[in-house]
Recover the amino acids of this structure.
C-alpha cells in the first residue's frame, strides 16, 4: 500500500468512525434521555431514527456533490454540520430541539461512507475493493464498540450533554484532518452539469440490475443497523434480563465481531472469486446466515449470549459486499451515485424499521421502562419476515446481471 493509499484509507475511515459513533450514541444515552424527558419507546424510536432520515435525505445530493467536487472537499465540509448537530442535541431541553440536532447530525455525516468508497475506488484496483471496503467498515465498527462499554463507562463520570460537546470537537478535528491531508482527485471537476448528474441517479434507480443487487442487502442492512444502533440494548435488558453493564459489554462484542466480519468476508470474497465463486453469491450466503442468527437469538438457542451476538455482528455486515458488486456493474463516473443511492435506500429502511419497532413496542404497556418479551418478539418477527421475502427475490433466476449497464446520461470531453 502506497503512502497516498494509506492516507486515503486512514482519513476516510476516521470520517466513517465518527459517523458510526453518532449512529449508535443514543444506545448509551437512551436510559438517560428517556428519564430526563419521559419518553415512550415510540418517542425514542422517532428521535433516534431522525439521524437516519437526515442521512437518507442527503444521499442523492451527496452523491452528485461527491462526483462533482470530490471526496475530500465534500466530506470535510459536511462534517461541520454534524458537529453543529450534536452540539444542538446536547444543549437542547425540549424534544423538538433534540430532533433538530439529531436530523442535522445525520445530514452532516451523510457522505462519509459514500465518500470513503468513492475515494477507495479511485486509488485502489477493483479486485482490492471488497477487502478495502471491509477494512473501512471495520474501522467504522469501532464506533459500534465505542457506544457499548466505553460509552457506558464515560457516562459514569460525565453527563450525556458533556459527551455531546466532546463529540462535536472530535468531529471538527476529523474535518480539518481530511481537508488538510486527504489527496485531491481532479477528474470529478470535468463532470457534466448537476442536472445531468441527477439524471444519472435516476437511471440507477430505474436499473433492474441495481434492484437485483440491492434487494436482499438493503433489508438486512436496514435491520442490522436499526437494531444495533438502538433496540438491541432494550432486547438485552427486557428479554434476556441483562444488567445495563452486561448489555453494554454485549454491544461491544457485537461491534468487534462486525469489524472482524467486514475484514474477513472482504478477504474471503477475493479468494473465493479466484476459485470461481461470484461475489454476488457469496454476499447472499453471508446475509442468509445473518437471518439464521436472528432466528437463533429470537428463539433463545442454548448458546452463550456472547457467541450469538458475535454471530449477529459477523454476519450483519456482509451486505456491505453489495457496494463492490455495484462497482462491477456501473460505469466509473457513476460510482459515487451508485454508492449513495444504495446507502439512501438502506438508511430510509433503518429510519422506518427503527420507528416501526418503537411503535410495535408501545402497543404493550411498559413496566419501569421495560417492555414484555412478546412485544420484542413481534417486532423482530416482522423484520425477519421482510428479510426472508427479500432473500427470495435475490435468489430468483434473472438475466439482468449478465448484461453490462450502459447509462447514456453524461458526456465527457
Amino acid at each position: 500500500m502506497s503512502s497516498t493509499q494509506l492516507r486515503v484509507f486512514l482519513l476516510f475511515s476516521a470520517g466513517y468512525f465518527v459517523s458510526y459513533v453518532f449512529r449508535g450514541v443514543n444506545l448509551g444515552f437512551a436510559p438517560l434521555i428517556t428519564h430526563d424527558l419521559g419518553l415512550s419507546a415510540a418517542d425514542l424510536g422517532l428521535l433516534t431514527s431522525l439521524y437516519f432520515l437526515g442521512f437518507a435525505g442527503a444521499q442523492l445530493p451527496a452523491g452528485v456533490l461527491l462526483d462533482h467536487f470530490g471526496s475530500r472537499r465534500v466530506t470535510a465540509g459536511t462534517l461541520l454540520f454534524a458537529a453543529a448537530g450534536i452540539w444542538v442535541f446536547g444543549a437542547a431541553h425540549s424534544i423538538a430541539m433534540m430532533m433538530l440536532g439529531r436530523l442535522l447530525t445525520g445530514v452532516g455525516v451523510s457522505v462519509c461512507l459514500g465518500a470513503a468508497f468513492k475515494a477507495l475506488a479511485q486509488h485502489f484496483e477493483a479486485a482490492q475493493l471488497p477487502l478495502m471496503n471491509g477494512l473501512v467498515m471495520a474501522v467504522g465498527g469501532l464506533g459500534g464498540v465505542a457506544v457499548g462499554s466505553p460509552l457506558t463507562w464515560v457516562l459514569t463520570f460525565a453527563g450525556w450533554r458533556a459527551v455531546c460537546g466532546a463529540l462535536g470537537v472530535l468531529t471538527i478535528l476529523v474535518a480539518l484532518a481530511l481537508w488538510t491531508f486527504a489527496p485531491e482527485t481532479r477528474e470529478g471537476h470535468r463532470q457534466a452539469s448537476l442536472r445531468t448528474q441527477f439524471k444519472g441517479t435516476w437511471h440507477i434507480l430505474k436499473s433492474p440490475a441495481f434492484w437485483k443487487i440491492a434487494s436482499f442487502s438493503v433489508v438486512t442492512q436496514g435491520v442490522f443497523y436499526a437494531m444495533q444502533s438502538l433496540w438491541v440494548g432494550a432486547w438485552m435488558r427486557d428479554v434476556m434480563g441483562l444488567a445495563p453493564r452486561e448489555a453494554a459489554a454485549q454491544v461491544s462484542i457485537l461491534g468487534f465481531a462486525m469489524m472482524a466480519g467486514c475484514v474477513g468476508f472482504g478477504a474471503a470474497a477475493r479468494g473465493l472469486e479466484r476459485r470461481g465463486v461470484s461475489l454476488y453469491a457469496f454476499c447472499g450466503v453471508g446475509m442468509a446466515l445473518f437471518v439464521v442468527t436472528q432466528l437463533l437469538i429470537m428463539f433463545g438457542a442454548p448458546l452463550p449470549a456472547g457467541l450469538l451476538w458475535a454471530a449477529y455482528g459477523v454476519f450483519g455486515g456482509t451486505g456491505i459486499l453489495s457496494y463492490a458488486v455495484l462497482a462491477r456493474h456501473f460505469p466509473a463516473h457513476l460510482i459515487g451515485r451508485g454508492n449513495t443511492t444504495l446507502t439512501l435506500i438502506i438508511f430510509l429502511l433503518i429510519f422506518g424499521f427503527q420507528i416501526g419497532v418503537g411503535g410495535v413496542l408501545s402497543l404493550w404497556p411498559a413496566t419501569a421502562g421495560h417492555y414484555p418479551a412478546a412485544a420484542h418478539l413481534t417486532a423482530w418477527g416482522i423484520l425477519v419476515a421482510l428479510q426472508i421475502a427479500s432473500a427470495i427475490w435475490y435468489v430468483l433466476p434473472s438475466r439482468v446481471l449478465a448484461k453490462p449497464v450502459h447509462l447514456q446520461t453524461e458526456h465527457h470531453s
Observations:
- The first helix runs from residue 3 to 37.
- The CA atoms of residues 33 and 39 lie 8 Å apart.
- The chain has one domain: 3-181+191-399.
